[in-house]
Design brief:
By secondary structure, the protein is an alpha+beta fold. The chain has two domains: 4-174, Sandwich (Jelly Rolls); 181-277, Homeodomain-like (Arc Repressor Mutant, subunit A, Orthogonal Bundle). Helix content is 45%, strand content 21%. The chain has ten helices and ten strands. Strands 1-2-9-4-7-10 form a six-stranded antiparallel β-sheet, covered by helices on one side. A four-stranded antiparallel β-sheet has the order 3-8-5-6, with no helix packed on it.
Length: 278
């Protein structure tokens, strides 16, 4: 991995550290650091903007706010403005980390919405989707067309969204050991076939009762309602985009009886399938 640094305003390094209050979000600069030798760095007086670090290899010792913490591979840390922070690698280790500096009136709200706390390491894992999102951000710095500023802000939101989801997923997995990813994937791929709660619970290696509770907590729906809603959404697409009969659509999304399909569809949307198509 090569060291890279990109600045929004050409190579104006001074303006790569500023707090802006005249726009919602703004990326000051971004890059990646790779060190195979012992090193130390940081900002003794803090920065004017938010400072995000994502460690994807090695380990750092980080000092900030009068305390020290170990910052490990697969973790993210975000420092707010005016926060002095210093860091150094664990002796003899190779370190790779991505960094991003951003500002704006909505910067703090973006982090709050993504449930990304400040001033502490956050477990997110080394995720290829996050690494790819940074590479896409860097690509925008090199392209720098007329939509450059809009695009890098969009990429900032993408990165924070990925971090938020990764952190929430790991937190949930650590809490009860079950993410429901296997069962949700199975439903998405086999919704048109008969699916039992027992089969889904077996995929997660838990009891049916425990599965129902966790599923309702995660989706806000019972498993049966979730599957029915998915079938109806796909039925709507087929009604709009194909010339299939109502009976053919009912069968293709998992309803074996056209009358039952019509009754459930009408209850959900307030009109029968044929009226919806018109």
């Amino acid at each position: 991995m090569d060291n890279k640094a990109y600045y929004t305003d050409d190579i104006d390094i001074e303006n790569g550290n500023r707090c802006l209050t005249d726009r919602p979000l703004y990326v000051n600069c971004a890059g990646v650091c790779s060190f195979e030798v012992d090193f130390s760095g940081g900002h003794e007086k803090g920065r004017e903007d938010f400072y995000l670090m994502y460690l994807c290899r090695g380990e750092l010792s980080v000092a900030f706010g009068g305390r020290n913490c170990a910052f490990k591979s697969g973790q993210l840390i975000i420092f707010p403005p005016k926060t002095p922070c210093m860091y150094k690698n664990k002796p003899g280790t190779h370190v790779d980390y991505f960094w991003l500096h951003f500002t704006g009136t909505k910067a703090e709200a973006l982090l709050e919405n993504a449930r990304l706390p400040l001033n502490r390491p956050i477990n997110v894992s080394v995720d290829e989707r996050i690494l790819s999102a940074f590479q896409q951000l860097f690509a925008e710095f090199m392209e720098r067309d007329f939509l450059f500023h809009t695009s890098i802000v969009s990429k900032l939101v993408d990165v924070c969204t990925l971090f938020g989801r990764a952190a929430a997923s790991l937190l949930e997995e650590n809490r009860d050991g079950v993410t429901l990813s296997a069962s949700l994937r199975y439903i998405d791929e086999h919704y048109a076939k008969p699916i039992s709660v027992k089969d889904l619970a077996n995929l997660e290696h838990i009891s049916c009762g425990h599965f129902r509770v966790l599923f309702k907590q995660k989706t806000g729906m019972t498993p049966t309602y979730y599957i029915t809603a998915l079938r109806l959404r796909n039925a709507c697409v087929l009604l709009k985009q194909t010339d299939l009969t109502v009976k053919e659509i009912a069968l293709s999304v998992g309803f074996s009886d056209q009358m039952y399909f019509t009754r459930v569809f009408t209850k959900q949307f307030g009109i029968p399938p044929k009226a919806f198509r018109r």
